[in-house]
Design a protein that fits this description.
Blueprint (H helix, E strand, L loop, with lengths): L1 H9 L3 H23 L6 H10 L4 H28 L4 H17 L4 H16 L6 H25 L9
Helix pairs in contact: 2-3, 2-7, 3-7, 4-5, 4-6, 4-7, 5-6, 6-7
Length: about 160
């Protein structure tokens, strides 16, 4: 009995191994591409790829649209606010609220609002010597690279679906 439990515990589903290989290859590829373009925070490309990697292209596409839309909105809002209104807590809070309302008006998913807020934090609140619009552009490109690599890998190497029983 104990041997059967031990063998079951040691058994790893081949599908999970393939998923780990796909994910690792995609994350490393996006990191290398971002470094090739000398993006200052290339690790964001790898993070975006990890978020995008899903079992199906449809699921990856859905999360990618939300991530891209949110990142674009957050980057634009962060650059505008930091440039013209400063980076105070009040300006940040107002910007976050406006992003939420804007996402609701545009009828985009809450996930997009979450990504917009994260990007707003990065652009507005992380100290940097670069201008806010440069930080915003880099952030958008880094995320876009990660999304593109994740989608391309998911399309050319789809995860095998379980056969229906």
């Amino acid at each position: 009995m104990a041997d059967a439990k031990k063998r079951k515990w040691l058994h790893v589903d081949q599908k999970e191994i393939v998923h780990a290989v796909r994910t690792a290859i995609a994350a490393v590829a996006s990191l290398l591409i971002a470094r090739l373009f000398r993006l200052p925070e290339a690790y964001w490309a790898a993070i975006a790829t990890l978020i995008v990697m899903q079992s199906t292209l449809g699921a990856a596409w859905t999360i990618s649209k939300d991530r891209l839309a949110g990142t674009a909105l957050g980057a634009a809002a962060g650059a505008l606010l930091a440039t013209y209104a400063g980076s105070s807590v009040a300006v940040f809070g107002a910007g976050l609220f406006v992003l939420g309302v804007l996402c609701a008006i545009l009828r985009i998913e809450r996930a997009a609002y979450r990504y917009a807020g994260i990007t707003l934090v990065i652009v507005m609140l992380i100290a940097s010597t670069q201008r806010p619009w440069i930080i915003a552009l880099h952030r958008f490109v880094e995320i876009s690279v990660g999304i593109a690599v994740g989608l391309i890998l998911t399309a050319v190497w789809p995860e095998q679906q379980q056969a229906a029983a």
